[in-house]
Amino acid sequence: MPMFEFTAQLASLDPPPPEMQQWLGAVSRSRTAMDAFARVAAGLTSPTEFFSTKNVERILVT
User: Fold this and answer.
1) What percent helix, strand, coil does the chain show, rounded to 5?
2) pLDDT in tens, 10-44
């Protein structure tokens, strides 16, 4: 279900909320985070794991 929800959110083409835009900006500045996001898009990592509070905080700090 998390992958379906992730895909449906992306497919809506609605702009992400400001806090998500900030977070995605942080992802774009980290090769490791970009690779992890690609694994989510490929279905290799659960969106629940990638978007966990711990992972979000780790990416925002780097």
Assistant:
1) 75, 0, 25
2) 889 888 889 888 988 999 999 999 999 999 989 89
Q: Which two tokens stand for residue 55?
A: 């992972």
pTM above 0.70, yes or no: yes
**Distance between CA 3 and CA 14 in Å, rounded?**
17
Q: What is the CA radius of gyration of the chain?
A: 11
Q: Which backbone phi and psi does 39 adopt, to 5 degrees?
A: -65, -35
Backbone angles phi, psi at 35, to 5 degrees: -60, -40
**pLDDT per residue over 35-54, tens digit each?**
999 999 898 999 999 999 99
